[in-house]
UniProtKB/TrEMBL annotation:
GO terms for cellular component: mitochondrion. This is Putative isocitrate dehydrogenase (NADP(+)). Belongs to the isocitrate and isopropylmalate dehydrogenases family. It is an enzyme of class 1 (oxidoreductase). Its cofactor is Mn(2+); Mg(2+). The lineage of its organism: Eukaryota, Viridiplantae, Streptophyta, Embryophyta, Tracheophyta. Residues 1-311 form the Isopropylmalate dehydrogenase-like domain. The keyword Metal-binding applies. Pfam families: Iso_dh (PF00180). It comes from Rosa chinensis (China rose). Its EC number is 1.1.1.42.
Length: 320
């Protein structure tokens, strides 16, 4: 399945120089580039979906709607670097009252460390519960909430408790009448379930969990490199780019490795060719920058096509 921009450029080079010369493979090709999609309207994506089903490739058959609680937690946290020994405390001073709550978090005895304090509010959690429950009810699908309440008994436990209280009071009878349900799961269990499920539910996540898991969900249709737009704009102007294509090469090797009817030595050999090319000092600009820092010069790296050509030469040498 072909995409857009810079990924499309070196995807073709990888196929033409590293895959097709060595494998006699009946490949099914779909051009999902924006230009071709516009020209064919909806027909091409539907054809691609039908093909996935025809060839029994694993995929979700129903939508997964991830709700991210976009307030608080790490995103409004206060963090600091601790210098030297001392006690770290958390202090709450209630408005209009004299009594304070003071918690000792850690007694630093060495050179110091790091600390973070984060928060959330009942009002924000309640609003998130209402949005999550209502979305699932409108879609007539199950609703799940995930936390790590076994570790953060009070913090994540507060999320779990409010979800359950609001569900029992306002939504349980509606859900039962609609034939749907609400459940709380540990984040570990929910991630594992998402991998093997067919989809078809609303997943209400805490702020950071939703940030991570929405990317996990999007990866089904997202290029491994992203669009690399900045490099593509340079390419359009006939400028030189040095885009790292190793991840895309490994997409091919891991897919081929999964197909048992193919020679399992080829995938390992191609990966070795990539790794040994870099280890020999031939690499793209991003890797050369790590090695050379501010002293980076043009002779330290290869451009996009040069790198793939060197890997192809290394692969040919290994297979000959």
């Amino acid at each position: 399945m072909d995409g857009d921009e810079m990924t499309r450029i070196f995807w073709k080079s990888i196929k033409d120089k590293l895959i097709f010369p060595f494998l006699d493979w009946d490949i099914k090709y779909f051009d999902l580039g924006l230009t071709h999609r516009d020209a064919t309207m909806i027909k091409l994506p539907l054809k691609r979906t039908d093909s996935l089903q025809e060839h029994s490739l694993p995929h979700w058959t129903k939508p997964i709607c991830i709700g991210k609680h976009a307030f608080g937690d790490q995103y409004r946290a206060t963090d600091t670097v601790i210098k030297g020994p001392g006690k770290l405390k958390l202090l709450f001073v209630p408005e209009g009252k004299d009594e304070m709550t003071e918690l000792e978090l850690h007694n630093f005895t060495g050179e110091g460390g790091v600390a973070i304090a984060m928060h959330n509010t009942d009002e924000s959690i309640c609003a998130f519960v209402e949005a999550s429950m209502n979305t699932a009810y409108e879609k007539k699908v199950a609703s799940y909430n995930s936390t790590k309440n076994t570790l953060l008994n009070k913090y994540d436990g507060r999320f779990k408790d409010i979800f359950q209280e609001v569900y029992d009071a306002l939504w349980k009878s509606k859900y039962e009448a609609a034939g749907i349900w609400y459940e709380h799961h540990l984040i570990d269990d929910m991630v594992a379930y998402a991998f093997k499920s067919e989809g078809g539910y609303v997943w209400a996540s805490k702020n950071y969990d939703g940030d991570v898991q929405s990317d996990f969900l999007a990866q089904e249709a997202e290029p491994v490199h992203g669009a690399v737009t900045r490099h593509y704009r340079v390419h359009q102007k006939s400028g030189e780019t040095s885009t790292n294509s190793i991840a895309s090469i490994f997409v091919w090797t891991r897919e081929l490795e999964h197909k048992a009817k193919l020679d399992d030595n080829f995938t390992q050999t191609l990966e070795e060719a990539c790794i040994e090319t870099v280890e020999s000092g031939k690499m793209t600009k991003d890797l050369a920058l790590v090695l050379n820092g501010p002293n980076l010069a043009r002779n330290h790296y290869l451009n996009t096509e040069e790198f793939i050509d060197v890997v192809a030469a290394e692969l040919n040498a290994k297979l000959s």
